[in-house]
């Protein structure tokens, strides 16, 4: 079984910072891309940032220059450093990993349970 466990969400004032972390565990053969999506109340889930196993990154326009994604391939972790947070960043943030397990050598997306980020004064 594969698990993605997120941590680091919480309440922060506008202009503040938070760091989200996600650790993948289980019978993982290889991980392709990892990243973060978010879903605000009443809105569709949207891509925040992704990073490939080679370190190439992509960001939503709304977070460019404020958020930084990184990963540790050996530890199977992905992090999201969020600076200059705005109220519109408030959402549940979901970690994902596109990976193969030892049992099923086909790339599939796996998701974490989500962590709440609230930006408010």
Q: What's the structural blueprint in terms of helices and strands?
A:
Layout lengths: L1 E6 L2 E3 L5 E9 L1 E12 L6 E6 L5 E3 L7 E6 L4 E6 L8 E11 L6 E4 L3 E5 L2
Parallel strand pairs: 2-11
Antiparallel strand pairs: 1-3, 3-8, 4-5, 4-9, 5-6, 7-8, 9-10, 9-11
Structure description:
- The chain has 121 residues and is an all-beta fold.
- The protein is elongated, with a radius of gyration of 14 Å.
- The protein has no helices and 11 strands.
- Strand 7 and strand 8 (77-82) form a beta hairpin.
- The strands form 2 sheets. Strands 2, 4, 5, 6, 9, 10 and 11 form a 7-stranded mixed β-sheet that branches.
Work out the strand percent. over 45%
Globally, the shape reads elongated
Q: What's the SSE pattern?
A: EEEEEEEEEEE
Model regions low in confidence, pLDDT < 50 over at least 5 residues: none
The quaternary state of the protein chains shown equals: single chain
Number of strands: 11
**Helical residues, percent:** under 10%
Radius of gyration: 14 Å
N-to-C CA distance: 40 Å
Count of discrete alpha- or pi-helical segments spanning 4 or more residues: 0
**Mean pLDDT value:** 97
